[in-house]
Design a protein that fits this description.
About 25% of the residues lie in helices and about 10% in strands. It has about 500 residues and is an alpha/beta fold. It folds into three domains: about 280 residues, Glycosidases (TIM Barrel), CATH 3.20.20.80; about 50 residues, Oligo-1,6-glucosidase, Domain 2 (Oligo-1,6-glucosidase, domain 2), CATH 3.90.400; about 70 residues, Golgi alpha-mannosidase II (Immunoglobulin-like). The protein binds 1-deoxynojirimycin (NOJ).
């Protein structure tokens, strides 16, 4: 949940914990059983809260620690568990450690400070680039440089230092003691750096800062903490190598990790099937549950992506003005919702996905995301998926609260939750019904059924089956299994049309 854009309880244009609390009934009715909160801690918001100044304080724009505790408890009473987001790779440049480091204290050792290279140290210590574009190093007036794999306001911590490890275990305990059930780990594969900080050489193994073996000891230690509280982890691990990916999911490490292969996969039957098979095969040996994610606060919203010529997701190809057919994208997103909710494992729904919100075009002068600025204005950044939600069609700012911190498109009220709640044919109606019916699939594995090219069909131990047609020709459905729920109308002969999914009763 991107609190800043969910619901604004105090009318200042920024979403807050009061807003979330007031919408718990909506979330319960949707059938949500856990909420992952993007960072809600004290932050200068240079990267939407992923620049944390104090892990033990709630940002005043969102509320107070007491209110967070109340929210965790109230959610729990509604059957909703809380997952907090921990950002161990970096802190804000306003964090007391970094301020002390800048003042020349021993805290420098908690970060990566280095003299520059070249004459007079005028060049960065190595050639690493920031994930947001530009060099990963910033020079200080005293001549030293510090490392930041993201924005300059997000200095990287030195995970070789025992105080960094100790502090994070204390932070985990702090939140577990407040009743959170889980922790999402930001940039989980980036923490540990090669101590020599060598230049990056394409293809050289191991990578100087991605997926280093030393990380596993960090997570084993975290796991011991989580086990004391019965807490679970979900790692943000973007790794193309599936064998390396699943190492994070070994029984004494993380419980789950986000499935970026599925999130990035184009809307093509063969590739989706391969992504599903690979995911299940990766998870089986370690006994970890799979996750299914179609979008989050970093990527293009699903209905927009699926309506484009290139239906995959890749940060590298994001551009202003990519044409999309929203009717087509919405049809596919509805089918994709039924597909993912029928698969074995956990499904993450990103706020507004259940409303079928498109990616919004933000006028460049209103963009706040550092990805846009660090790309020199060529990458539109991620604000288009972070626009404050429409709750009420007839209220100012579509019922979000005060004047939203990011502008809402003029058409936003048409997607309002109150309109959709009254319409079973809406995206919200589909999500509610699908989540309610989902237990018909049971907990068991998936068995693929024979299908024509371009069609995905599988059954689960619970007896129900799911058929998704991505081919041009409509498919016949077995007369013996009546449809339980469909993402769109069947044709006049009861066949499943293109870009449509159906759940069939046993
Ligand atoms: C991944 C988060 O999801 C993203 O929003 C953030 O910018 C980076 N990590 C850096 O913390």
């Amino acid at each position: 949940m991107y609190v800043r854009s969910f619901a604004d309880g105090d009318g200042d244009g920024t979403g807050d914990l009061a807003g979330v609390r007031s919408r718990l009934p909506y979330l319960a009715e949707l059938g949500v059983d856990a909420l992952w909160f993007n960072p809600w801690y004290l932050s200068p918001m240079k990267d939407g809260g992923y620049d944390v100044a104090d892990y033990r304080a709630i940002d005043p724009a969102f509320g107070t620690l007491a209110e967070a505790e109340k929210l965790i408890a109230e959610a729990r009473e509604t059957g909703i568990r809380t997952i907090v987001d921990i950002v161990p790779n970096h802190v804000s440049d306003q964090h007391p450690w970094f301020r002390a480091a800048l003042a020349g204290g021993p805290e420098r050792e908690l970060f990566h400070f280095r003299p520059g290279s070249g004459p007079g140290g005028e060049l960065p210590p190595n050639d690493w680039t920031s994930q947001f574009g530009g060099p990963a190093w910033t020079r200080l007036p005293d001549g030293d440089w510090y490392l930041h794999l993201f924005a300059p306001e997000q200095p990287d911590l030195n995970w070789a230092h025992p105080a960094v490890r100790q502090e994070h275990e204390d932070i985990l305990r702090f939140w577990f003691e407040r009743g959170v059930a889980g922790v999402r780990i930001d940039s989980a594969a980036l923490l540990v750096k090669d101590p020599r900080l060598p230049d990056f050489v394409e293809g050289r193994d191991p990578h100087p800062y991605v997926d280093r073996d030393e990380l596993h000891e960090v997570y084993r230690s975290w796991r011991r903490v989580a086990d004391e509280y019965g807490g679970v982890f979900v790692g943000e691990v973007w790794l193309p190598d599936t064998e390396r990916f699943t190492r994070y999911l070994r029984p004494d490490e993380l419980h789950t990790a986000f499935n970026f292969s599925f999130l990035s996969c184009p809307w093509e039957a063969r590739r989706l099937r391969r992504s599903i098979d690979d995911t299940l095969a990766e998870h089986a040996p370690v006994g970890a549950p799979a996750t299914w994610v179609l979008c989050n606060h970093d990527v293009t919203r699903t209905v927009t992506r699926y309506g484009r010529e290139d239906t995959g997701f890749d940060f590298a190809t994001k551009a202003f003005g990519t044409p999309t057919d929203l009717a087509l994208g919405t049809r596919r997103a509805r089918a994709a919702a039924l597909l993912s909710l029928a698969l074995p494992g956990a499904v993450y729904v990103y706020q507004g996905e259940e409303l079928g919100l498109p990616e919004a075009d933000i006028p460049p002068y209103r963009i706040q995301d550092p990805m846009y600025f660090r790309s020199g204005g060529t990458d539109p950044g991620r604000d288009g998926c972070r626009v404050p939600l429409p709750w009420r069609a007839d209220a100012p700012h579509a019922g979000f609260g005060g004047e939203p911190w990011l502008p809402q498109p003029a058409y936003w009220p048409a997607y309002a939750a109150d309109l959709q709640a009254a319409d079973p044919g809406s995206m919200l109606g589909l999500y509610r019904e699908a989540i309610r019916l989902r237990p018909v699939f049971g907990d068991g594995p998936l068995t693929w059924l024979p299908t024509p090219e371009g069609v995905l069909a599988f059954t689960r131990a619970g007896g129900a089956s799911c058929v998704v047609n991505l081919a041009d020709t409509p498919v016949e459905l077995p007369a013996s299994s009546p449809p339980l729920l469909a993402s769109g109308p069947l044709d006049e002969r009861g066949r499943l049309p293109k870009d449509t999914a159906v759940w069939l009763r046993a």
